[in-house]
Amino acid sequence: KRPIPNRCVPLYTRADRIANQMSAAASSSSADAAYAPVARAVEAMRQSLREAPERFAAASKDVGVLQKLLRNPADQPEEPRFRKLKLTNATVARVLATTGVREVLEACGFSADAEHLELRMEATDTAAVARLSSAAEAVEAAQRMLQELHWIATVRDEVPSLAARPWAADGAAHALVQACLAAVSAPASDPLALAAKIPWVRRLNRLMFSAELQECRSSLSPLASVAIVALQTTSLELIRVGARDVRSLVEVSQCLAQLWPPGEARTLDARLDFAFACMEAALPPAGEPLELRLRLVRRELLGSAIEALGAFSEMGVRCGVLKQPLTIEYVGEAGQDAGGLRRQFFDLFTAELPASRLWTHTDAGGLRPVDRAALTAEAAAQLRPHMEACGRVCGMALYQELHRRLGVRWEPEVFAGQPPSLLGDSFARYFLRAVRHDPPATLAELQAELRAECPDSAPDYRAGPEILTRSLRESGLEGQTFVRHVGGAEVPLVEGGAVRAVCDESKAEWLERMLRAELVDGVAAAAAHFRKGLVDAISPGHIDAADALTCRWTTPHFFLLTADELQAQWSGAAVSRSFVASCRATATVHPEVAQQAQWLWEVLDELDDAERARWFRFLTGSSRGPRGGANLRIGPRAGGDGAFPFAHACVSSLDLPSYSSRELLRERLGAAVKAAHDKFTDL
């Protein structure tokens, strides 16, 4: 072929392409043929070693040395000392005595004389280097196999029923997995039976998380559904005895999360059901004389609630008072709480948080604590009791949902129509991750969390890829230093940050430090106090909220749900047009007010989200909608054009007069909602 200038793209004929393909195939075939003896030697070594359980530990160590003997000349082919092995070296002599090792080395090109095994190859021999690398990988896999078989053999020796069987490497992993699942699945009717399961929990946890136990995990994979049920049973048993064995509960939870990962939509309902089953198992005995009643001041709901929650004794909290059904009373009001007042309390509590000096909204509307660096001394002094009370309220909301579910189970005719108790505002996702001991760690995660809290109409430039790909000049960021501005003050990101200029080389470091300070460090103290209050309410035992390992893995709503799923469980969804449409599709409407109901849906479609939220609070006690929609009932009310709509918030039912026009319905509905926006009033 004539030379092709560099500026041109080579255009090959069909014959050229076929010739190149044939050449590549021949080269590949040649390499495969050269490696075949190595593959046969490694496989022969594997087969000979896997049937000698008494040699597994020593053989695994020797095969590890063999891997190093092959890896060294592959990684540094120009180094002569890696190509010559002294036969008089004690380690080399021991390794060569292991069955199959010498054959592997010889297949890789090593040859023996009186004193050495020498690899005769040129440093530039890429084919030989590739062959050595492939051999080292195959030997590494053989070492992992031996490590796994050694663990299996050790477990067999500890279990008489397994030790009595003759050893066979084929099927050993499957037999151990079946024995493990059978032991963990066995019901524990007493503490001794539960204690007997614990060693098997340890083995199952190691089986799932040790890198070398690959065949065991392959055997477990088709039995995942069996393992999930077994682990659920054991988890509930551990919780029912007070979660005293925290280590075992952590290990069970880790296995569950691995087999049942959060974030999969198809398993969400089942994961939620189990999370609430764990909370039910942690309920105090039915005979305990505990009552959860909050007597609040309507005009000072937030302050009176925080004061009331702070008044519970530590002993009362430990005994489970915050896990009880909640009753709300307001000073000077005679209303009886059949569910509506309770839902209204959770709705209003979080909706009023931004009015305090300790919370603010992100650009997308999520609740987050005010940055620690921006707090006044007075506000900082209030941080702990305030955040602990907020955490307790959120934990109580989860337990009220449990009691609603239990009510549906035992008294469906009473509880089936009751919607869940939802918070009136949603938390920023990065704050929930901090609460869960799972803060964003990498720059990519930090940018993703910032993006999640920015509206599409006003994106934050720091959250996009352009800030990393463009120069500071192109981004208009020249002159930046390693400081951030909080509440009018400069806070250094590193020591001496005020005089350290940001350059293109340090831009990524500056951005990561900036976002970490804003999204993680700035809310860390608030998240810790919030978590303490939350764990007070929902912990299955005496769990240290500051301990990341035990707190995260003993709290089902932390390890079974993503931050988004937890956010939806607490706060539901905005009452949007699509949500109202889903309610309309499932609503039960009395024939007498079918026309008025039609007008009602039309009116709601014309309102904005804030107005629809006020209407939904009037109807259900909550300004946010539950996941999956709500089951509303619309019935008639006497009085005609002179009457107002009346809501039974406890059962999500609306009594609607037979208005003569759509305009009149809109006027009367607006007046009723306005009069009852923060209380229940019959006009």
Structure, explained:
The chain is α/β, with parallel strands linked by helices. It contains 29 helices and 13 strands. The strands form 5 sheets. Strands 10-11-13-12 form a 4-stranded mixed beta sheet. A hairpin with a 3-residue loop joins strand 2 (110-112) and strand 3. Helix 13 (301-310) packs across helix 16 and helix 18 crosses helix 22. The longest helix has 36 residues, at 14-49. The protein is elongated, with a radius of gyration of 34 Å. 38% of the residues are buried. The model is unreliable at 1-19, 21-26 and 677-683 (pLDDT under 50).
Features:
683 residues; alpha/beta; 3-stranded antiparallel β-sheet; 56% helix; elongated; disordered N terminus; disordered C terminus
Quick overview of this protein structure:
By secondary structure, the protein is α/β, with parallel strands linked by helices.
Secondary structure blueprint with pairings:
Elements: H1 14-49, H2 56-75, E1 84-86, H3 90-96, H4 101-107, E2 110-112, E3 116-119, H5 126-158, H6 160-163, H7 172-185, H8 191-209, H9 214-220, H10 224-240, H11 246-259, H12 268-281, E4 292-296, H13 301-310, H14 314-319, E5 326-330, H15 340-351, E6 359-361, E7 367-369, H16 377-410, H17 412-415, H18 429-435, H19 443-452, H20 466-469, H21 472-475, E8 483-486, E9 489-492, H22 507-538, H23 548-553, H24 556-559, H25 563-571, H26 577-586, E10 588-589, H27 594-606, H28 609-620, E11 633-637, E12 646-648, E13 653-657, H29 662-675
Parallel strand pairs: 4-5, 10-11, 11-13
Antiparallel strand pairs: 1-3, 2-3, 6-7, 8-9, 12-13
